[in-house]
Amino acid sequence: MQRAKILIILRPAEGGIVKHVNTIIKNLSGKFAFTVACPQEEAKFYRHLPCQIIEVPISGTFNLWHDLQALSCLRRAVDGGSYALLHAHGFKAGFVARLLSGFTGIPCLVTIHSEFAHAKASRMASIYILAEQWLARRTKKYITVSEWLKQDLMQKYKVQKEQVCVISNGIELKEFAAAQKPPSFWIPQNYYVGTVARLAPQKGVDIFLQAAAALLPFFPQTYFVIAGEGPLRRELEKLAQDLGIKERVIFLGKYHEIPALLKCLDVFVLASRSEAQGIAALEAMAAGCPVIASNVGGLKEIIKDKQNGLLFPAENAKALAAAIYHLLKNPKEAKRLAKQAQIDVQKYSIERQVLQMQKLYEKMLEGGKVK
Predict the structure, then answer these.
(1) Is the pTM of this model over 0.70?
(2) Which residues touch 306 (CB under 8 Å, ≥6 apart)?
(3) Which CATH number fits domain 173-347: 3.40.50.1970, 3.40.720.10, 3.40.50.2000, 3.40.50.960?
(4) Residue 117: per-residue pLDDT
């Protein structure tokens, strides 16, 4: 039986989207024939996968000339490709994909991984919202990674409830649950409180450092570990120095041994100002590490306060410091929360995510072209 052809359309993307697309293609290539349309510099992330690649000039920001070029390139590819479904990731790729759907009649699916176009913070917020409300008519289905994001899409962009489904990102549970060799810096006598995050404003790593400074007088044998890279690296290093905690902060940069790191932490913190889902929190839960997270977005669906972790008000460094203090001071409580978290995280498996994605593809492919 011939496999239905699906064209995945991507803007310049980082870790989360790349990992998501890799997971879907790797696990579903036996059932569907995938082609990835992405910028030339991004093609390297997908060449090892069983899929075709089309290089298109889609930029991360609005660029009418590039967008028209990308649309033209995609139209040529689709004309000779017999594609049954378009699957775009994010607003920018979704913008081009739905114009393409309008020209070709091929149904379009759009996955939203974060706040759509970060509209609340954008200078073009009203334009994004109006554009999305218009494009929604060319969208067969939306996928959001959390219920919170679904509600945000419905309220802000007036998308109909039946047009949106939630498929949470999954993780490799066994990878994080398995025993790991501790990192080289680890000394059993010390406390380690850490975070795994891109060093960008929305991740709140500055709040984490402020909380660290408030906590250190009470637990002077604590080290604060930050795994991740991003545009704020130098600014955050300077903040650590200004707070007088430079010697107690370990910047790991881009770190590949995340399961081992999570296994050695006494507390994991995700201090995000905005978070669609919170994969890093899921990974910490699977590793058996007590989790403290800000009460924003999809994190509130993952972390149930005082049941499988602790929540604190976003941007409140004092509240975060108090939560860390509580868990370090009460190891039995921390262990109880971590144990429940390992149970609760089981529903966020890769297998479940892939099965839900397969069922949605099959359902959409039964529907045929958009009229």
Answers:
(1) yes
(2) 337
(3) 3.40.50.2000
(4) 44
